[in-house]
Design a protein that fits this description.
The complex is a heterotrimer. Chain B is mostly helical. Chain B has helices at residues 26-35, 42-58, 64-75, 82-88, 93-100; strands at 3-5, 8-10. Chain C is of the alpha/beta class. The A-C interface holds A 8-10, 12-13, 34-35, 38, 41-47, 62-64, 66-71, 74, 83 and C 13-18, 44-45, 48, 51-59, 61, 63, 65, 87-90, 95.
């Protein structure tokens, strides 16, 4: 088992995503929510954070992407979308949740 | 005070604006107008329908001066002035007409 | 009309995650009643405020992205976007909403007042403003 990291801040404004990746172990899951979903966009100045992270599985909350007008075809390959029920499943299926704010 | 219309009860806020814009139906406007002793004519409905369209497109209730200008553009210059609009809605076209249309109170209206 | 001041609203935060964008928009809507020359500037994550296609139906939040499109009716004359901020976020003008402006008396029209500027031009616009409100 591994931990679930949640990141809710924009990677352009804070280093929460960078730190969550840096301070997580292989096999960890990282769920992007709220302004954190901007980290899932392809073709940005910070796309390499997610695209270049090996051994981490990335998820993004669909409702937060939609609210921000980010279409699915703008996302980095391999990022999996979840709804609120999927969020709950992720929480249940990990040892614990670490919120990186 | 909740308002009764068409055999249903509609929740409102403390100033009488509909709590949920999606619940609105024409009977709500009729019931609100009746409480104000006002009979709704086609001219009233032009403004109410205009406000609903505006909200649908921009997600806010327009300020009175925006409403006035937009009505003038859409319904004719002779209607795009506050005298005409206050004639229809004596409590203020912003507040009263928005309330009948099920919209929230216009931003900046006190 | 020497008492007309140039107001600049400087927006640097993403919408929806925090309250700043909506607060700024509300102040602009209310302030429009005062007949000043109003411009909006979007830099850093503020450029996300103008990204079109917002759908908040699944997140139980008010969708205020369409509201920016009525700002021309509220007398906002210019909406400036920082080019570098857009590019860093993989965005182009095609990703942004369009805001029309029209002078109701002269019927002068501008199809889209959203304009992309480089940092030098932005510095100039900020310098030319009488007041800068930061959000």
């Amino acid at each position: 088992m591994a931990d679930l990291y949640t990141v809710n801040k924009s990677p352009f404004e804070k280093n929460s995503l960078e730190d969550a990746i840096r301070f997580s172990s292989e096999g960890a899951s990282i769920l992007l929510i709220e302004d954190g979903v901007y980290g899932a966009m392809a073709g940005t100045a910070v796309s390499d954070l997610v695209a270049g992270a090996t051994g981490r599985k990335f998820y993004a909350l669909r409702a937060d992407l939609k609210a921000r007008g980010i279409a699915e075809d703008r996302l980095i390959d391999g990022v999996e979308l979840v709804d609120y029920a999927g969020f709950v499943d992720l929480v249940v299926n990990h040892d614990k949740v670490q919120a990186w704010l | 005070m909740p308002i009764e219309a068409n055999g249903k009860v509609f929740e409102t806020d403390e100033e009488g604006y509909l709590a949920n814009i999606n619940e609105w139906e024409p009977a709500v406007a009729e019931a609100m107008a009746k409480e104000d002793d006002l009979e709704l004519t086609d001219e009233h409905w032009d403004i109410i329908n205009f406000l609903r369209e505006y909200y649908e497109e921009y997600q806010i209730a327009p300020a009175v001066r925006v409403l006035t200008k937009a009505v003038g553009k859409k319904l004719g210059k002779e209607k795009g002035n506050s005298k005409y609009l206050y004639g229809l809605f004596p409590y203020g076209p912003g507040k009263q007409a928005c309330r009948y249309a099920g919209l929230p109170k216009p931003t900046g209206c006190v | 009309m020497s008492d007309v001041k140039k107001f600049m609203y400087l927006n640097r935060r993403a919408p929806y995650g925090t309250i700043y964008a909506w607060e700024s928009l509300e102040v602009v809507l209310i302030g429009a009643a005062f007949d000043q020359e109003v411009s909006l500037m979007f830099v850093d994550d503020g450029v996300f405020q103008l990204v079109k296609g917002s759908d908040t139906s699944e997140s139980d939040m008010k969708n205020f992205t369409p509201t920016y499109r009525t700002l021309g009716d509220y007398g906002v004359r210019h909406m400036y976007v920082d080019k570098a901020s857009l590019e860093a976020r993989g965005l182009t003008q095609d990703d942004l909403i369009e805001v029309a402006w029209e002078d109701w008396e002269t019927e002068e029209e501008v199809d889209n007042i959203v304009e992309i500027l480089d940092s030098k031009e932005i510095a100039k616009k900020l310098e030319e403003s009488d007041v800068v409100f930061s959000f």
